[in-house]
Amino acid sequence: MTRIATWNVNSVKARLANVTGWIAETRPEIVLLQEIKCETDAFPRAAFEELGYHAAVVGQKSYNGVALLSTLPVSDVLDRLPGEPEDPQARYVEATVGGLRVASLYLPNGNPVGTEKYPYKLRWMDRLHERARALLAEEVPFVLGGDYNVIPAPEDVYDPVGWTEDALFRLDTRRQFRKLLNLGLTEAFRALHPQERHAYTFWDYQAGAWPRDNGLRIDHFLLSPGAADRLVSCTIDRGPRGREKASDHTPVIVELADPVS
Question: What residues make up the domain containing 14?
Fold first, then answer.
C-alpha cells in the first residue's frame, strides 16, 4: 500500500511543528506540499530528513513554492510545468517514486478575475492538460495532487451562488477542470464519495469560516487509469485545521494498493 498526502501548508517555516508533527503521526510514504513560501535553499530539509524523507523542492521567495517528500528514493525530477518557459512562479514539481510518476502542484488562484491573473490561471490549466496528455502517452501510472484552486461542483462550496463569479468556481474554470478529467483521469475523492457533502479542504481565516464550516473543496488528486485501478481510499483529515497556528487548508490522503506483479 502507498499512501500519498497533499497539503497546502501556507508557509512551511511558520508551521513547521504542525507539519512535521502530523507527518510523524500519519507516516504517508509520499507527502506533497504547496505554498511553502520560501526559496529552495531555505526549505527546512533537515527536519524532514530526520523523519526519513527525501525532498524535491521548488521554492520562491515569500510566495508559492511546492515540495515532494518521499520515504522512497526520488528520481527524474521535473521542476516546472512545461509550456511557458518564462513563467517565474514556483508551482510544480514532478518526480518518479516507486514506479509512480507523482506531481505536487499549486494551481494559480486567478483572482481578481478582471486582471491578468485569471487568463494566467486558464493558461496554466491548459499547460497541465498538455502535461497530463504527455504522461498518458508514456503509459506510466501517475498522480497529480495538490491545491488546484478549483471548486469542481456546487456541492464543493458552502455558498454556490455567492461564489459564482469567483475565479475558483467560474464556469470557464470548471470547464478546464472537466477537460482534464475527460482525458480519462479520475478525481479520487468524488470517485469514492460521490454523495458526501461538507467535504471541505479549505476554510478562510476570516468571518468565522472554520467554526461555521463555511468551506471549499479545492485540494484534489487526479489519477491516471493505471493509478485509479489501484485506488483504495481517499480521505480528508480535518484535524490539522483546528490546531493552533493552523494552515487554512487541511490534508487529503489517497491510498493506492500495491501493483499486481
Answer: 2-256
